[in-house]
Structures
1.
Amino acid sequence: MDRLKEFISNHVLGNPTRLAIMLYLLPRTRVLFKELLEVLEITPGNLDSHLKALEKAGYVKIRKVFSDRPRTAVEITSKGAQETGKYLKLLREILDEV
Amino acid sequence: MDRLKEFISNHVLGNPTRLAIMLYLLPRTRVLFKELLEVLEITPGNLDSHLKALEKAGYVKIRKVFSDRPRTAVEITSKGAQETGKYLKLLREILDEV
């Protein structure tokens, strides 16, 4: 049952929107803000606040990219990839017990 | 990617504490409030508020049990078992894609 305690104590990835962002980023490394908006169908304000929480935790970096026009890109950090991997391992172990 | 949208739109089970309660209840059908407190290591007020949200969604029933002294028991409903099963299936599908 210690896995359940560990599961509920992760306040960064315990939020489904933040976990979904990390799951989408994990194989892609870097995505545009606009793409995340379309994939997750959430509001820009909502996405922005979750990205800020992920950045504060050190899981992503938010960058301004300039090509024809300025865009916002989100990059996963090695810490973010590692912590997401650990969380997925924990989730899989919990699901295997059910 | 529709699975990610479905995942983030479940506001009942999207909360890790509520999911943990349902995961613990699923094979046991009925547990005491006191036991859930010990298993999850959360405060009584916190557990109470999550159980009320689960009861409002129709996933559990909260009952007063009288033996030597009054206790509170939590029972999973068939709707709760069904919805938790569906959510776990979705989670497994998402994890299989990673």
2.
Amino acid sequence: MPVFLDATAPDFEAGFARLLSAKREDSADVDEIVAGIIADVRARGDAALIELTAKFDRLALTPETLRFSEAEIETECARVPAHEAEALELAAARIRAYHEKQMPQDALWQDETGATLGWRFSPVSAAGLYVPGGLASYPSSVLMNAIPAKVAGVERLAITCPTPDGAVNPLVILAARIAGVNEIYRLGGAQAIAALAYGTETIPAVDKITGPGNAFVAAAKRRVFGRVGIDMIAGPSEILVIADADNDPDWIALDMLSQAEHDESAQSILITDSPAMARAVTVAIERNLATLERRDIAGASWRDYGAVITVPDLATAAQLSNRIAPEHLELCVTDPTALAEQTIHAGAIFLGAWTPEAIGDYVGGPNHVLPTARSARFSSGLNVMDFLKRTTLAQMTPESLRAIGPAAETLAISESLEAHGLSVRARLNHLNAL
Amino acid sequence: MPVFLDATAPDFEAGFARLLSAKREDSADVDEIVAGIIADVRARGDAALIELTAKFDRLALTPETLRFSEAEIETECARVPAHEAEALELAAARIRAYHEKQMPQDALWQDETGATLGWRFSPVSAAGLYVPGGLASYPSSVLMNAIPAKVAGVERLAITCPTPDGAVNPLVILAARIAGVNEIYRLGGAQAIAALAYGTETIPAVDKITGPGNAFVAAAKRRVFGRVGIDMIAGPSEILVIADADNDPDWIALDMLSQAEHDESAQSILITDSPAMARAVTVAIERNLATLERRDIAGASWRDYGAVITVPDLATAAQLSNRIAPEHLELCVTDPTALAEQTIHAGAIFLGAWTPEAIGDYVGGPNHVLPTARSARFSSGLNVMDFLKRTTLAQMTPESLRAIGPAAETLAISESLEAHGLSVRARLNHLNAL
């Protein structure tokens, strides 16, 4: 049964706290297994990758077939029906246009002492993008990961995607080609992350790894963090819909089910100021569940983690939303813009009933790789900044050193860092002797 | 003995590769100890903090004295000599002015279908700043961590700083007050990170933790990453100076020693196209080492990790610099701007001989919390973005949904996500029925 809460009930706070703290991830500690896999790949390189892929993906590879050849890429791309290829192209164009607007500006200015200050952005040289395989092999994720990297100017982009039993999703390959990637490896799990982070005989190491994955991938990303950059540790997906009385319950139900069908650990929450809407959406979810292809997954998600919360007003809805800090937030209300000003912590906001979350998964333009598990409190969805770094710039003139050097010397001495002070003093003495 | 390499020598590549891969961090695996400390703080809260602080800092605390009182803050601030307070104020003003320029812009626009797209930045609600204690208790680090957070708009800022044997650096307290922080805890090590991440009876949890620390702090930050945001895993500090023949060898030597005096694991590297300068700097380092207060630390760093590399030209210097990806890069050359265009991977660049790195540590304006251990390949120094997150915004109109909805439906079906497709289809059917 999903949870039903009434924000005006005396026991609401306890129920809401339980909802917030519910652990939705597999609690199995895979960290030790992952540590072993990483050590193995570091020690034995390609041989370890081949052995692990035989074991986990039941696929026999050689150093030559770890990577898709140009001919294989061509063959896979040719298998994609035209209408799907066109949809991918439309999605890619919109994602590219959105992310191009994210490119930050370099800056350089002179301060009042004559010193030149500023910064410069530059792309990472090489990035690795993890694409889940099997059930969750999503071509849209390829676009969402690769396009921001390309927009940022990353020269080398490598994709790893497991191909269990050799199964390849041709749309994933086509999406990679559309996004400008042509280095694609048949690798998944912690071994793929290890190969990207440390390199092997055939796979050069990258500087940054992004993309979602299962518990093994997440643990591996956490372990290689520092050696390379990573985007985030993604958990199960979630949606919060805030809806007023003026909605089609079926639309809301389908939006919530589109989250639930991802994963049994996904979470769909409705907050509404209309008890009638709460009931109607609940009924519509059950009705739609009956015929849904992925009703087992979506049903389990809804039963175990679904929630419906009634509130006295939308201001209360916004407050609760901020405590949930949802990955996806749909505002199906009359004035979504006004409500969005109150919902501070969210990965992505979808404004108004004409904006189902699924639009954002594919063709809206914004990224669908978003912070989960309340991490929207402190982190952002994937964006071009994930593939850029800022180098700060400073150039003193003799005059500016005269103006601010003595303060630096004072602070250096106060921190018992004598050489710091002397490095400034040597220059000041030279100026004073002129 | 520091390493001396000649970029034109046949065995250069092997020597340079050894330099790049030299492990400068204590290899002791503290992860298990840290995991135990975090679990203890989660389970027992303040009681664990008090016990661990008694053990590691030899300091008896109570829940009431974990935090500095207003009166204690006042007392500590009054102990700071006026010239040091003035230097701190100057540093704070310059750091604030620099970071204010980093504030990114929100964006909102309409695309050609009529859809509204954009994003919005908002600060994290609460941040925790770790300040090392003992030898490395640096008031400048308080400014460098707290001011970007304040500029970003973070409402609640908590500082933890160990006070071994009760020793407090009054400049740290004053720096906190100048930066606008007044929540200061007598806590260090992994227990401080655990308290910030999970909260205790007296310390509310924060959303983001920044600041440098020892191996225990680094391991703890790595462990709580995901629960909260963290800035980076900082390693030992390093400087690369690229100098031509036209320099005062003493200035270069002092700049290199100002890095070496931080830590026995710090690294100072000189690359020069002048063999005479290479020799002169080496001699000047030895001469200055003889009288330096921290000669034991700086001498060990220089002996164990120092390096001098001669190159045939500055273009080669830039190439080597990019492979090192130094935290601090000083360009003591005639045309530093031109050389900076070739040095892509660096945390901070100091242009020209009038810009000793120590200026950047204190009063330059840019942040001194910078990516170490080659991580400038993929990450940036601390900046206001570390305390902000981006929420993406999308609002479809019926017309824009008509234009791009079918492509979303196609891709959803191709990914076997039926409810995703249905959520779009339900709206399109409604439009078609109008």
